[in-house]
Amino acid sequence: MIAIRNVSKVYEGTKNPAVRDLSFDVPTGEVVALIGPSGCGKSTTMRMVNRLVEPDSGTISIDGEDVRSLRPETLRRHIGYAIQGVGLFPHWTVAQNIGVVPGLLQWDRTRIAERTHELLDLVGLDPAVYADKHHDELSGGEAQRVGVARALAADPPVLLMDEPFSAVDPLTRDRLHAEFRKIQSALRKTVLFVTHDMDEAAQLGDRIVVMRDGGLVQQDTPERVLAYPVDDFVASFGGTERALRRLSLAPVTEALYTPNTAGAEGPSVASTASLREALAIILKAGLPSIPVRDGDGAVVGAVSVESIVERFRRPLT
Ligand SMILES: Nc1ncnc2c1ncn2[C@@H]1O[C@H](COP(=O)(O)OP(=O)(O)OP(=O)(O)O)[C@@H](O)[C@H]1O
Ligand SMILES: [Mg+2]
């Protein structure tokens, strides 16, 4: 677990704290999304975890060990860091950039080459085309994906990702989100990531931490942040589609009722779909309710506009 306790930071020559009395946890194996307006202290918070910036007060520990008791080099070998704005070494190739931490850990060449290949595939860049390119031969989104591959290279248990997908087009981003969720469900890394995008925070985060002016405004599960924003500022981050965002976080099974009154013919929804997907199918079909099918195609019940509204109204625990 990463435990951040009463941490504050004022940069030299500045008046206002970049981070003020900030406390929150990133539980082991979970993903925390840090969200807030530009300049609110998100990157500073990350950089204090791996000691690129030292806090003025407060403590940060990883699995109970104060990060100040660890050498910065040791720390950075065990924490994958995808830097905001990428930060690739310009004179190195893509493969050399990805292999930097494995190299420090003295992996042999073959293992580094195999790992680089695997990671380029993972982030959707053909190794045959990209491995030997330099930074100035990459688009912004490609460079960003190399930065993510570099953070993952040595398979670190802790990941810090500062706006890792901001420069990537929506289709590629969806694919990377899906990959990220797949990796995360298998490897259960402890992840702190920064985003400006509430959808991304809600899709990838187990919890969301909202910051403003260096301090914490709200921390909770995505659905609760969207359902119960503590103030107008947090609500505005949810956007005008806050309600629809909430629906995309709840599985259709939460509004399922039996017996199925929608008949077995016509459009149906998979039991693994979200309430938002179910509502979209209902609207497209122009029907008040549709059957829900399990993985074998068997009808297990139905979902209706009413049952969705009812689920939406129910208080969250
Ligand atoms: N090295 C530095 N020296 C002085 N001030 C800094 C330094 N780095 C950041 N700041 C200031 O600290 C505040 C927080 O910056 P930080 O980079 O943490 O914000 P952020 O939330 O990551 O913003 P963004 O969303 O734009 O990346 C800002 O006011 C910024 O100008
Ligand atoms: Mg930043």
How would you portray this structure in words?
Strand 12 and strand 13 form a beta hairpin. The protein is globular and about 65 Å long. The protein has 14 helices and 13 strands. It folds into two domains: 245 residues, Rossmann fold (3-Layer(aba) Sandwich); 63 residues, CBS-domain. Helices cover 38% and strands 22% of the residues. The strands form three sheets. A six-stranded mixed β-sheet has the order 6-7-8-3-9-10, with helices on both faces. Strands 2-1-4-5 form a four-stranded antiparallel β-sheet, with helices on one face. Strands 11-12-13 form a three-stranded mixed β-sheet. The relative contact order is 0.12. The protein is α/β, with parallel strands linked by helices and 317 residues long. Adenosine-5'-triphosphate (ATP) binds next to helix 1.
Low-pLDDT residue spans: none
The N- to C-terminal Cα distance equals 24 Å
Name the beta content range: 15-25%
Radius of gyration: 22 Å
Mean pLDDT: 92
Quaternary form: single chain
Characteristics of this structure?
single chain; 317 residues; alpha/beta; Rossmann fold; CBS-domain; 6-stranded mixed beta sheet; 13 strands; globular; binds adenosine-5'-triphosphate; binds magnesium ion
